[in-house]
């Protein structure tokens, strides 16, 4: 990825993006669905998918909770 | 940002019927020795989750052994208080433990955000615009290709953004301040910082598109 692509990606916004508050409110529900049916999770929660793609801190929390639920951390 | 898209009619995936979750609710909502034992067991679980989460993030942190343990213990203690205080808000949309783990993970995030400012080398003042090409991975050898684009971006930051949006853009993009750390410094929350950056990104992209830069950039991509 070159600088043009990275800048374009960084400035891009998805109107479906629900923001941190709503994404975190449902994170536990989303994570459990991801562990069972990843495709269904993406279809059911496009607003959370859009947010996690753009928000580094929330994406980090998602990865952390996914690791905890999956028993892969530590 | 969307008010509620992507959530719609399927907000809940009821899982409240599982016996383990019901048992947690019963014992934590009870009294006496049984409740104390449940609280102790929950704390041990949250401490394990927080410890694992701190270690998972450790390679990207400027923290070492004892500090990491402190963060894990503080996060577990605060997560325990939050879970107990919000027990009545558990809606049974997931297993109880998944819901509780979330508090531990979020507390770790919050604690690490505060830790960022303990580094005396970190300052919010000043603007390092020279950092911009490197931030987005522009090749110095192709400076003539991107110089005008970044000059236009800088002008748009000055002219299009509100003072608050500009302050947040400069801190995150030019100074590399993490969102959670910036939220602490500005006495706000992650959602408010993200919303300001979301609006700033949208304005800046529109400004660059209006001047033909991103379209030109797309055609120049190798």
Automatic annotation (TrEMBL), chain A:
The name this protein goes by in its record: Mycothiol system anti-sigma-R factor
Source organism, top-level taxon: Bacteria
Automatic annotation (TrEMBL), chain B:
Domain RNA polymerase sigma factor 70 region 4 type: 159-204
UniProt keyword list: Sigma factor, Transcription, Transcription regulation
Domain of life: Bacteria
Region spans: Disordered: 1-21
Pfam families (UniProt xref): Sigma70_r4_2
Gene Ontology BP term (one): DNA-templated transcription initiation
One term of GO molecular function: sigma factor activity
Family membership noted in the UniProt record: Belongs to the sigma-70 factor family. ECF subfamily.
Protein name: Sigma-70 family RNA polymerase sigma factor
Organism whose genome encodes this protein: Microbispora catharanthi
């Amino acid at each position: 990825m070159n600088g043009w692509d990275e800048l374009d990606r960084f400035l891009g916004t998805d109107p479906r993006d629900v923001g941190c508050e709503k994404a975190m409110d449902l994170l536990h529900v989303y994570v459990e669905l991801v562990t069972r049916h990843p495709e269904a999770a993406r279809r059911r929660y496009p607003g959370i998918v859009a947010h996690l793609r753009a928000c580094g801190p929330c994406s980090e929390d998602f990865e952390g909770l996914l690791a905890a639920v999956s028993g892969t951390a530590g | 940002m969307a008010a509620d898209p992507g959530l719609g009619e399927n907000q809940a995936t009821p899982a409240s019927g599982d016996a383990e979750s019901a048992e947690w609710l019963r014992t934590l909502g009870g009294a006496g020795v049984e409740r104390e034992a449940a609280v102790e067991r929950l704390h041990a679980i949250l401490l394990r989750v927080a410890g694992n989460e701190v270690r998972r993030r450790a390679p990207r942190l400027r923290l070492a052994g004892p500090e990491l343990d402190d963060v894990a213990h503080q996060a577990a203690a605060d997560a325990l208080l939050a879970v107990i205080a919000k027990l009545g808000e558990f809606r049974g949309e997931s297993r109880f433990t998944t819901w509780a783990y979330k508090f531990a993970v979020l507390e770790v995030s919050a604690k690490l955000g505060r830790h960022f400012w303990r580094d005396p080398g970190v300052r919010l003042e000043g603007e390092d615009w020279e950092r911009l090409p490197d931030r987005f991975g522009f090749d110095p050898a192709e400076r003539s290709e991107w110089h005008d684009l970044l000059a236009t971006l800088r002008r748009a930051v000055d002219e299009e953004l509100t003072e608050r949006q500009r302050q947040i853009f400069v801190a995150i993009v030019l100074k590399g301040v993490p969102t959670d750390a910036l939220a602490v410094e500005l006495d706000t929350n992650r959602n408010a910082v993200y919303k300001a950056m979301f609006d700033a990104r949208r304005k800046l992209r529109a400004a660059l598109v209006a001047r033909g830069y991103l379209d030109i950039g797309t055609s120049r991509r190798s």
